[in-house]
Amino acid sequence: MLECERFEFRIKMGSIKAKIVEAQCDIICLQETKKDSFSDLFIKIFCPASFDTFLFKPAEGTAGGIITISKSSKFVGTLCWDL
Questions:
Q1: Does residue 22 carry a pLDDT above 90?
Q2: What is the residue extent of each domain of the chain?
Q3: Who has the most CB within 10 Å: 9, 18, 55, 56?
């Protein structure tokens, strides 16, 4: 069963990555992530390599969570506040 879940996860992440490439976007914002943390590795699974910067507000329990993922080559700025 675990192997099946991993396979489904890889298909889902591959589909997301394909849509990002198709849309040719420079920034991605996801809400209601329901995750309390993100890692560089997790981002690399579903984002093309050009997306190399992310900021997030963790979920509280099983609700909320937001992440913004972008290409540092396209956006320059200073974090004004931390959520």
A1: yes
A2: 2-70
A3: 56
